[in-house]
Specification:
The complex is a heterodimer of chains A (595) and B (77).
Chain A: E1 2-7, H1 14-22, E2 39-45, E3 48-54, H2 66-77, E4 82-88, H3 92-104, E5 109-114, H4 116-121, E6 125-126, H5 128-135, E7 139-141, H6 150-160, H7 172-175, H8 179-193, E8 194-195, H9 204-212, H10 218-260, H11 265-283, H12 286-302, H13 304-318, H14 323-332, H15 336-342, H16 349-358, H17 365-378, H18 384-406, E9 417-419, H19 428-462, H20 475-487, H21 494-503, H22 508-518, H23 522-532, H24 535-547, H25 552-562, H26 565-592
Parallel strand pairs in A: 1-3, 1-4, 4-5, 5-7
Antiparallel strand pairs in A: 2-3, 6-8
Chain B: E1 4-5, E2 14-20, H1 24-32, E3 40-46, E4 53-57, E5 60-64, H2 66-69, E6 72-76
Antiparallel strand pairs in B: 1-6, 2-3, 2-6, 3-4, 4-5
Classes of the chains: A alpha/beta (595), B alpha+beta (77).
Chain lengths: 595, 77
């Protein structure tokens, strides 16, 4: 099978093009370094099936960050039949250097000048035919996002694939010409084919940044946006979740239960109170999750993440981190796993480890489900969103505390140099793709962890058969009683202890397992929780849930990214200790104050 | 006019890059981002609390810390 590799600098739209060519939903965003892994897809070009590989962006072939090494090793080990070089047309003046480096290693290549729509707006004119002639490589203008120029480019790719790469990409560094030579050649190519206005017209980005990056207003605006986002998620998401939950309860009573009524009682119990209640309580969160990721996608796609890095870098520097660490914390609000992988753009190992140590405290969307459910059950509609926001503040506070405590063990002097891309608008197509991707991801996790989790919880709460369900004589009761001395000082009941135990696997299971333990789903579970817990206990439970280890996937990623078992163990132990201490101080403090 | 560090410019000021006194990986990265002697550079803004600088070279906007900006010499135009 022939192989095409997508190559180019960070944030030039390689993944956007990859998605367009393969119909995949690789994560895209207006942030240099959003792709840190190899992604592959198969497409039909002409009469052949071709493998397309999306590579992380590289600044140059001798880069030293981990994502750049991934690309270098890939080129060394798998010479592609065709390299599809994606350059940002608005930055052609400097991105040409990478093209010339790549040309020197004798790859068979087609060049796509992406974001040609944006270049036009900047008043940059590029004569692709002239440039093509000067370099002896096929070059086309393209907008991967909107599709202009795509068909022509695809034809050229199909044609170019008939010839394969003549040279081998071994000894990449040896074959690189000196910078001086590259500079001279750049000037020669640019001279006739590209015209850039000497001063850029004042555009939308400049206007917006005057406000968003304002010396005094920038940070308050940032926190204002965050606050409004979380309010909106609660305001729109919670009724949606209730609606779906009621629908699933209705479905159970009118269709599923009658359908299963001929089965033995025990099997009915497992299927209905175990799997159906557990899964439907979790599934009710799908609309909320989609909504959350749509908001996240808008923040990521517009380019605001780099602005957040600018605003927060000075503060992060005091904690031994930098602006990029802060952006990864924000990405962690979606899911900790890609945020951990996103640290690959950092070169210093100390900075990477310190950032990876704080990311698990980021309040991810799975924990958000637990908090939305519990705050809605125990707090008034007015205070619930504020309680939720306070948990986000705690999330930052634990990350800051952790960084301050451990920065002296992981000192670094990594330079902070980051591109600031212009604001861009996400297309509807991208938003739909992202929403679908998250639903898929959720269902994937649900089928893997959540079903197994709720079945196990059901068995624990119903075995041995002699014991009354969920009583102290069941396995879960015994386990709960055994662990209770540890959790009593922080106000967590035996039932909640079992839920926390399963939450270690994935936070999605927490509410699902509570549904199984109480034998209730949806609204009925909320009412039951409200009767059994007071707000101090509930908040203590949420604090613990927020701070202790997020999930097994995060642990596995911590291990694979750090390649160090000790670091992974340390992260687990520290988060457990901190979770217990924070809940203890809160619970005992609140009780001492008379709450 | 003598060469000064990029970090001494005030927002809105333009200058020409004279020399880049960095080494190794940082030097490579700066070159790839468009820092080259003879290029025009403009300081757009500075973040509060001695945070990073936003500079513009051609059509690229770049954030960099005070520390790095001290190593880049420019001549005001």
């Amino acid at each position: 099978m022939k192989r095409i590799a997508l190559l180019g600098m960070p944030n030039t739209g390689k993944s956007t093009l990859f998605n367009r060519m393969t119909g995949a939903s690789a994560r895209v965003g207006n942030w240099p370094g959003i792709t840190v892994e190899l992604l592959t897809g198969k497409i039909i070009l002409g009469e052949d099936i071709v493998e397309l590989i999306d590579l992380p962006g590289i600044y140059d072939l001798h880069g030293f960050s981990e994502d750049e090494q991934v690309v270098r090793h890939f080129l060394h080990d798998n010479v592609p039949d065709l390299a599809l070089i994606v350059l940002n047309a608005t930055q052609i003046e400097r991105q040409l250097s990478l093209l010339l480096q790549l040309k020197n290693i004798n790859l068979n290549m087609v060049v796509l000048l992406n974001m040609s729509d944006e270049a036009k707006k900047f008043g940059i004119t590029i004569d692709a035919a002239k440039m093509s002639e000067a370099l002896g490589i096929p070059i086309f203008l393209l907008s991967a996002k909107y599709g202009a120029g795509y068909d022509v480019a695809l034809q050229a790719v199909t044609k170019a694939l008939r010839y394969t790469t003549p040279g081998l990409a071994e000894h990449l560094r040896d074959q690189l010409k000196s910078d001086g030579q590259i500079e001279a050649e750049m000037a020669r190519v640019l001279q006739h084919s590209v015209q850039v206005p000497s001063r850029l017209p004042d555009n939308l980005t400049d206007h917006l940044d005057r406000l968003m990056l304002h010396p005094w207003l920038g940070l308050p605006i940032f926190f204002g946006i965050m606050y409004l986002l979380f309010q909106a998620i609660f305001f729109f998401g919670q009724p949606l979740q209730n609606g779906v939950s009621d629908l699933l309860t209705w479905l159970r009573d009118t269709a599923v239960a009658p359908l299963l009524s001929s089965l033995p009682v025990v099997i009915q119990g497992l299927l209905l109170d175990g799997i159906y209640n557990g899964l439907s309580t979790v599934a009710a969160f799908v609309p909320l999750i989609v909504l959350f990721f749509l908001f996240m996608a808008i923040v990521e796609d517009t380019g605001y993440l780099s602005r957040a890095a600018f605003l927060m870098d000075a503060l992060m520097a005091k904690m031994g981190l930098d602006g990029r660490s802060f952006v990864m914390l924000l990405m962690g609000f979606g899911c900790n796993v890609p945020a951990l992988m996103g640290t690959r753009v950092m070169r210093s190992r100390s900075l990477r480890l310190l950032t990876m140590l704080v990311i698990p405290f980021s309040l991810c969307s799975a924990r958000l489900q637990v908090f939305v459910f519990i705050t809605a059950a125990l707090f008034s509609p007015k205070t619930a969103p504020l309680v939720l926001f306070s948990l986000y503040l705690f999330s930052f506070a634990t990350a800051i505390l952790t960084a301050l405590l451990f920065k002296r063990f992981l000192p670094n002097n990594e330079p902070f140099v980051l591109e600031l891309p212009p604001y861009r608008f996400p297309t509807l197509r991208q938003l739909v793709l992202r929403g679908w991707h998250e639903v898929y991801h959720f269902i994937h996790r649900a089928s893997k962890f959540i079903v197994a989790g709720v079945v196990l919880v059901w068995l624990l709460t119903h075995l041995p058969p002699s014991a009354a369900p969920a009583s102290a004589d069941t396995f879960s009761g015994i386990l709960g009683t055994w662990l209770h001395p540890l959790f009593k000082p922080i106000g967590i009941t035996a039932e909640l202890t079992i839920a926390l135990l399963f939450g270690f696997v994935a936070k999605e299971i927490v509410i699902g397992s509570l549904a199984v333990i109480y034998g209730l789903g949806g609204q009925a579970l909320s009412h039951s929780l409200a009767l059994q817990l007071d707000w101090v206990q509930a908040y203590s439970f949420m604090l613990f849930t927020l701070i202790y280890t997020p999930c097994l996937s995060t642990i596995a990623t911590l291990r694979s990214e750090s390649k160090n078992n000790g670091f992974m163990m340390f992260s687990i132990v520290w988060s457990l200790v901190l979770a217990w201490l924070a809940s203890f101080v809160f619970y005992q403090g609140a009780r001492a104050l008379g709450y | 006019m003598p060469a000064v560090a990029l970090s001494t410019l005030v927002p809105g000021e333009s200058a020409t890059i004279v020399a880049i006194h960095t080494e190794g990986p940082l030097h490579q990265r700066l070159l790839a981002m468009g820092f080259r002697a003879g290029k025009l550079i403009e300081l757009i803004r500075r973040a509060r609390f001695s945070g990073p600088l936003q500079v513009r070279i051609g059509t690229t906007d770049i954030l960099l810390r005070q520390n790095e900006a001290e190593k880049i010499l420019v001549k005001k135009t």
